[in-house]
Specification:
The complex is a heterodimer of chains A (210) and B (296). By secondary structure, chain A is an all-alpha fold. Chain A has one domain (13-209): Transmembrane di-heme cytochromes, Chain C (Fumarate Reductase Cytochrome B subunit, Up-down Bundle), CATH 1.20.950. Chain A has helices spanning 4-9, 17-41, 48-51, 55-80, 88-95, 97-101, 116-140, 147-178, 193-199, 201-209, and strands at 11-13, 190-192. Chain B has 296 residues and is α+β, with helices and mostly antiparallel strands. Chain B folds into two domains: 14-238, Alpha-Beta Plaits, CATH 3.30.70; 259-295. Chain B is 28% helix and 18% strand. Classes of the chains: A mainly alpha (210), B alpha+beta (296). At the A-B interface, α4, α8 and α9 of A face α3, α7 and α8 of B. The structure holds protoporphyrin IX containing FE and iron/sulfur cluster (SF4) (3 copies). One iron/sulfur cluster binds at residues 52, 55, 83-84, 105, 165-168, 178-180 of chain B. One iron/sulfur cluster (SF4) binds next to α3 of chain B.
Chain lengths: 210, 296
């Protein structure tokens, strides 16, 4: 391979325009759902609702944002699910995730296009999206379902919110501050070759071979 | 938690407010109000039903006869524009064919599930006299109150706002008795403090027992801390026949949701945020590997 300095200048395409579109189609409604949900989850965050268009309005838009979010998740599933299948390397990666957090990636199995953590978040969104949809529809039309079923739906909706919400906080942090150089992949679609080679070496070699 | 002021309700004082800290209970002390429904004296005339709709300016839905057969009932049940209805059911008992008649409306639970389930500060309030009421200006239309209610009471209008019996809080505040009580021609409805109503219910209960209704009971479900509407049921062993749950209480699913799950959820979410911050300040961002550079 050539000089490292050149690697920094070379750009590789990580996400196509369609990939990026699907990502934001899911992410923008998600942020609205997360914040309006948070305002309903805890009275301490009830002040968020007026900022999201008003108390009543945000509870109303929450449902329709959910519909758009569902379309995004579905497209994302069709496109990315095959890449998120966990292999034996991923298991080793997860067991030794502490090295990742310490910034010692070289002690971990080389990652392909997605590392095990990213794959896991992918499944959180897919499974979470399905649970949000089913429970959300039940909560939307509580008069059509049995009371026990609606109560269970609210409980599951909330538990899913906590799990997926925690995943989202990590995802947001990693995509912006935690792993510098990542954000451009979802904006221009490109990352530096150096970024690719150090965070996703297996994938980088595949791309280079082409 | 958010603290909701008692705007417009200072005169009455509040005991509980949805999604908010309870107001100080040491300022105003009110008697608990109650309505006693003596089913043994009810003749099923539906005068209370008509009076309720009249006082509250409601236009209850008219049900097309061919649609649902509801027998002697005015319709299948509560509606946003029908705060109470008389429920009729027939069954064989040891006393022969019996008509189970119940005045059905919000029970004004001492521990209201609707208020517990509501996520919007101030949308459900319980006055210090025990009356449970909704404030539509603060309601977000989520319909959680229906899931919280053990009696399946709130009904929603086109804007998803809940309606129910408000114990004629306007009349009661002005020193009048609730409209349904005022109307009842047989004195089957009694209005007063909960204490008085329980004493009267007990006297009536003794009378009923003497007349051979040895299974008669006073329905005042302890699972919700007692209710503002109490019933004297001649066939106390069959509350379901009156449309009343045997053991009314707030569903454990609701308690789980509003209790442990909320607490654990908050710890998990704040903990994750703290974790991300600690990673940042202890180890720093995950940059492109330095070792990698050397190897190349
Ligand atoms: C898939 C589509 C979704 C649908 C149909 C849906 C529907 C609903 C409905 C009907 C409610 C009751 C309040 C209201 O009427 O607005 C609700 C509450 C809530 N939603 Fe969603 N939702 C969806 C997705 C999400 C997502 C993605 C999140 C979080 C990231 C979320 C978080 C919440 C939270 C926290 C609450 C409040 C529940 C509580 O008090 O604990 N929802 N949702
Ligand atoms: S519908 Fe309104 S009153 Fe009922 S729980 Fe939701 S916000 Fe509260
Ligand atoms: S009966 Fe239902 S609506 Fe009425 S106070 Fe009890 S929980 Fe609330
Ligand atoms: S107390 Fe008032 S609102 Fe409630 S049923 Fe009687 S008349 Fe109707």
């Amino acid at each position: 391979m050539e000089d490292v300095k050149n690697l920094e200048e070379v750009e590789v395409e990580r996400f196509s325009a369609f990939d990026r579109f699907v990502h934001w189609l899911t992410a923008i409604p998600f942020v609205y759902l997360f914040l309006s949900g948070l305002g309903m989850y805890s009275p301490k965050f009830a002040w968020l609702l007026p900022f999201l268009g008003g108390r009543e309005f945000s509870a109303w838009l929450h449902k329709w944002a959910g519909v758009v979010f569902t379309i995004g998740v579905l497209l994302m599933f069709l496109r990315w699910a095959k890449d998120f299948v966990l292999d034996s390397d991923d298991r080793i990666w997860l067991a030794n995730v502490k090295y990742y957090l310490k910034g010692e990636e070289e002690k971990l199995p080389e990652a392909g296009k997605y590392n095990a953590g990213q794959k896991l978040f992918g499944w959180m969104v897919f499974i979470g999206g399905a649970v949000f949809l089913i429970t959300g529809v039940v909560m939307w039309f509580p008069e059509t379902f049995s009371t026990t079923f609606v109560r269970l739906a609210i409980l599951l909706h909330e538990i899913t919110f906590v799990v997926v919400g925690a995943g989202f906080i990590v995802h947001l942090y990693m995509g912006t501050v935690g792993v510098p150089g990542s954000l451009s992949s979802m904006i221009t679609g490109k990352v530096s070759a150096l970024w690719a080679a150090s965070h996703h070496p297996k994938w980088f070699r595949e791309v280079m071979r082409k | 938690m958010a603290t909701v002021t008692t705007e417009g309700t200072v005169g009455l004082g509040l005991r509980r407010v949805s999604a908010s800290k309870s107001p100080d209970q040491n300022i105003k002390k009110s008697d608990q109000l109650a309505i006693l429904v003596d089913i043994s004296s009810c003749i099923g005339c539906k005068g209370c039903e008509a009076a309720c709709s009249q006082w509250h300016d409601l236009k209850p839905p008219l049900f097309a006869e061919e649609k649902v057969f509801t027998g002697y009932q005015s319709g299948p049940g509560l509606a946003p524009s029908l705060f109470m209805f008389m429920r009729f059911q027939e069954a064989e008992t040891e006393k022969g064919l019996t008509w189970f008649i119940t005045k059905y409306q919000c029970m004004h639970c001492s521990d209201p599930g609707c208020l517990k389930a509501c996520p919007s500060p101030g949308a459900v309030i319980q006055y210090s006299n025990g009356i449970v009421d909704f404030d539509h200006s603060k309601c977000i239309g989520c319909k959680f109150c229906l899931s919280g209610c053990p009696f399946d009471v709130p009904r929603y209008d086109a804007n998803n706002k809940p309606w129910k019996c408000n114990f004629c809080v306007d009349r009661v505040s002005a020193g009048l008795e609730p409209m349904c009580v005022k109307t009842c021609p047989t004195n089957a409805l009694h209005f007063g403090t909960k204490e008085e109503m329980l004493i009267r219910a007990n006297q009536l209960l003794q009378g009923l027992k003497k007349r051979g209704f040895d299974k008669a009971v006073i329905y005042d479900p302890p699972g919700v801390g007692g209710t503002g509407y109490i019933y004297l049921l001649p066939h106390g062993d069959k509350p379901e026949m009156y449309g009343l749950p045997k053991e009314a209480s707030i569903s454990p699913l609701i308690s789980l949701w509003k209790g442990p799950v909320k607490l654990i959820g908050s710890v998990v979410l704040w903990g994750t945020l703290l974790g991300a911050f600690l990673q940042l300040i202890l180890f720093g961002p995950i940059k492109v590997g330095k070792k990698h550079k050397k190897e190349e």
